[in-house]
Amino acid sequence: MDYITKFAEGFMGLFQAGADTFISWMTGIVPVVLMLLVAMNALIALIGEEKMNKVGEFSAKNPLTRYMLLPFLSAFMLGNPMSMSMGRFLPEYYKPSFIAAQMQFCHTSNGVFPHINPGELFVYLGIATGIETLGLSQMDLAVRYLLVGLVMNALGGWVTDFTTAFVCKQQGIQLSKTVQIDK
């Protein structure tokens, strides 16, 4: 009977841990993301959606601005996961590649800008602790991680462009390479 009781307690404990995590999200990340969403939409309303679409058009002109500059600025200003929303200003064709670059950038910038992705800071700190144990600089690691990340994330976004072209051809669809303004 003790085994059954311990199993039932452990089973319910699993769901209690899930519920505790859910409540921590409701008092932690969810309000932050909601406020960032409100702030971003307010800023877009002040600047004007047409001007923001022009930023998207400008960014779409070459892979460096699409997959290096725009992901950096949106991650730095909005953090993860809100930075993904900047992809809405890009043409449909480039959205998969932007998201690929953006999601990767949110990880590789943690050492220098921990506010971008605080939920995964433990990964960087685990590596940084080993570097510090060796007597090396954590900031040196953070800057190298950021710089390599910028280049590799932009390359990953660009490679995703080729994948998108392949899938479009395979599926017989055509995605727009210009920003469509919905009114």
From TrEMBL:
InterPro entries noted in UniProt: PTS_IID_sorb (IPR004699)
Keywords: Membrane, Transmembrane, Transmembrane helix
Record-linked Pfam families: EII-GUT
Gene that produces this protein: srlA
An annotated GO BP: phosphoenolpyruvate-dependent sugar phosphotransferase system
Domain of life: Bacteria
Membrane-spanning intervals of the chain: 22-47, 67-86, 145-168
Gene Ontology cellular component annotations, sorted alphabetically: membrane
Lineage: Bacteria, Bacillati, Bacillota, Bacilli, Lactobacillales
Protein name: PTS glucitol/sorbitol transporter subunit IIC
